[in-house]
Write a structure and sequence with these properties.
Elements lengths: L10 E10 L5 E7 L8 E2 L2 E3 L6 H13 L7 E6 L10 E10 L11 E8 L10 H19 L2
Parallel strand pairs: 1-6
Antiparallel strand pairs: 1-4, 2-3, 2-7, 5-6
Length: about 150
Amino acid sequence: MEFTYKYPRPAVTADCVVMTKETTPHVLLIERGSDPFKGHWAFPGGFMNMDETAEQCAIRELEEETCLKVSSIYQIGAYSKVNRDPRGRTITVAYLATLDAPADVCGQDDAAKAQWFPIDALPPLAFDHNEIMKDALTLFTRLLDRRSV
């Protein structure tokens, strides 16, 4: 049975922030290979398929864009500012994954490259990823504090 909904619906994406647990943590970024923000750095992520959860989307997009496989992620938050994506009304759910050290990565799919950056030397980020990074750092610190107890 098909259903027609009379109200417009936003698109949903998922992003994955990957950070290392080194003395100086590193963050995995992709260089966007297409517009919007072609040539700018961003977190791996993309549009959610109809048959997957936001968590599955984040893990899938991370692997598709960077060749990196993770199994455990933590939700950072949902980001829904009206104009956060110039392609249209898009809500993203952001997740955090942690690794002990940088792993081998490669840019593929719609990522021109994938690269690790020291947390204190991040390039300007696309979309609202600066806000997501700030929240990711808060969660990252909480997770590390919990593990050292």
